[in-house]
Design a protein that fits this description.
The model has no long low-confidence stretch (mean pLDDT about 85). A two-stranded parallel ribbon has the order 1-2. The protein is an alpha+beta fold. It has three helices and two strands. The longest helix is centred in the middle third of the chain and has 14 residues, at about 30-45. About 40% of the residues lie in helices and about 20% in strands.
Length: about 70
Amino acid sequence: MKIEKEADMAEPFYRANVLVCGGTGCSASESLEVMSAMTKEIARRGLTNEVRVVQTGCRGFCAMGRS
């Protein structure tokens, strides 16, 4: 019984997680706007329960942010 209760409290399972940097450099390069646009498009396509957009901290790829 305890395992079932813990499973009910677990985070939902998504088919895909889209990771978007929310570090200072990427935020300055409009990563939050990208995240918002992706979230809206996922909703428009009816994929809200399947695809999650997750803001992350800096991953160290700042030079690739605006390529």
